[in-house]
Design a protein that fits this description.
Blueprint: H1 3-16, H2 37-44, H3 48-55, H4 64-73, H5 78-87, H6 104-111, E1 118-122, E2 127-130, H7 132-138, H8 151-157, H9 170-188, H10 193-204, H11 206-213, E3 224-229, E4 233-244, E5 249-255, H12 261-279
Antiparallel strand pairs: 1-2, 1-5, 3-4, 4-5
Helix pairs in contact: 2-3, 2-4, 4-5, 7-12, 9-10, 9-11, 10-11
Length: about 280
């Protein structure tokens, strides 16, 4: 670990970022450019004291998950992320694992959608980032660990995952998830994480095993989805996807037809999401 270079790199990257770059208000009392340490810490999901110790040449060696969180919080490019890992004394992550790093351009788009339900997901259905309205609509999907990080795994193994979707839509979702996972396993090969996940679900979910045996590749689906919320009932939303093929990720944006009841509910959800963010869990 090159403690001095690591601290210097973090400081220069923090000072190069402006509040507008990460969706924060500049405020009238800000006298200098760049972000404050406590702002970066909040973006990274860690305490200000922990982050400050690293930038001040103190503290213990950050773990790889912590470095990944810092890379996302500072909106680092892939090259900058690899440099961060090297300075901390770790090998650069394998390409398949790097898909968990959100591209800077994609993060900038998400930062400007803070009043809209939107989130960044990997091809395996692992949610990396969500806007507050997305949390209000779908729940917090970023806190899962292990196999449950994947929506594919949660859908077939956790009953609570299906609770926000009307029962009559469950079969359509199940078939779509199965077909998507089959396509991923074929594209990435038998030694990939997708193939490992498919083998796990074959052993643990009779429903998945039945659908897998049907070998469906093309599944009829549309952009329209129905989501049941605790505060506002069922909302019909259109899910648009912006793909980052290099990262194997997608930005999901949820909208509703203007003037419809669902559109009004989505606007209310934006307020609910902002309230949750300001009051905390």
């Amino acid at each position: 670990m090159d403690r001095d270079q690591l601290a210097d790199f973090l400081r220069t990257r923090r000072e190069a970022l402006q509040p507008e770059d990460v969706g924060l208000p500049r405020g009238k009392r800000r006298r200098t450019g760049g972000l404050r340490r406590e702002e970066v810490a909040a973006l990274c999901g860690m305490s200000a004291d922990y982050y400050s110790r690293i930038e001040q040449h103190r503290g213990s060696r950050p773990s790889e998950p912590m470095l990944a969180a810092i890379a996302r919080g500072l909106h680092l490019s892939l090259d900058e992320r690899d440099h961060l890992f090297r300075l901390a004394g770790y090998p650069t992550p394998a390409r398949e694992l790097r898909m968990e790093h959100v591209d800077t351009g994609l993060m900038r788009v998400l930062d400007r959608l803070q009043d809209t339900p939107a989130q960044v997901v990997t091809s395996l259905g692992e949610t990396l980032l969500q806007t507050p309205p997305a949390v209000a609509l779908l729940g917090d999907e970023t806190g899962y660990t292990g196999l449950d990080r994947s929506m594919f795994h949660r859908w077939f193994t956790r009953a609570d995952t299906r609770r926000i979707y009307p029962r009559e839509d469950h079969d359509t979702h199940s078939r779509a998830f199965t077909a998507d996972l089959r396509s991923l396993a074929a594209r990435h090969g038998p030694g990939s994480r997708a193939a490992d996940l498919a083998r796990t679900l074959l052993d643990t979910s009779p429903e998945f095993a039945r659908l897998w045996s049907e070998h469906e590749i093309t599944v009829e689906r549309g952009h329209l989805k129905r989501v049941r919320t605790a505060e506002l009932g069922v909302i019909e939303v259109y899910c648009q996807m912006l793909f980052d093929l290099d990262q194997d990720q997608a930005l999901l944006i949820f909208t509703a037809t203007p003037g419809s009841e669902s559109h009004e509910k989505l606007q209310l959800l934006s307020v609910i999401g902002a309230q949750h963010l300001s009051t905390g869990p």
